[in-house]
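User: I'll paste a sequence; please echo it back and then give the predicted structure.

Assistant: Echoing your sequence first, then the prediction.
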Amino acid sequence: MSDEVLIDKHEHIATVTLNRPAQRNAISYPMWLELAEVYGELEQDSSVRVVVITGAGDEAFSAGADIKDFQEHRNNPETARVYASALESALRALEGISKPVISRINGFCVGGGCETTMSTDIRIATEGSRFGIPVARIGITAGHHESQRLVQVVGAANAAYILLTADLIDANRALSMGLVHEVVPASQLDERVSALASRMSNLAPASHRIHKRILKTLAQGRTLDSLTQEERNLPLSVFATKDFEEGVRAFQEKRTANFQGD
């Protein structure tokens, strides 16, 4: 693992830090490849119940893709296709984590950085954070997958505004659009994210896993009539888990449940 992607694990919570503060945590091509591996490993790690994604320093979550990669990795349609595949592999791996994923947003959250946060479940930002996908300023576009995520998160009208104006919007505007869930003072960001991650890590992993699958299915625009029998049975499958047994037993015994994720 490189020193540009840091992993810290503590009490069922894994924190992934984009660690290039001098470059506003811009994500290089090798970092996209590494992030795909990291996210896959976190999905397989049963000791991890919540994942937090953040950027090093106080200036940026991430300024997006590293423009220095353009000459080598995005200088024509062929190289751009390879680059897009690496980016999308990372975002899909992030979306594929069956545990809650929180974006801890501290500052600029732009381009590929903003697209990264839209692949997470909960986004908490500081008051001074700024958001946007200003790719039209340099003559490129967001891809279909990234644009689809944007529409799913903020709706078609807001997505059009973000892409077509190439503006950077402030945290309160992002909150009103649904781009973030909460805005807090910078001094309270760590406390808020830590408290939320800790509380979520004590909930039933089986419930989180099934809820994320259900939400992903519905986000695809599927009608309920189109669900397969397996998909219809998914909410019922939790009743065969040890998490369900422990949850009911703990409620009856008036104690905190000790879920194991089984």
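The longest helix spans residues 77-95. The domain at 5-200 is CATH 3.90.226.10 (2-enoyl-CoA Hydratase; Chain A, domain 1).
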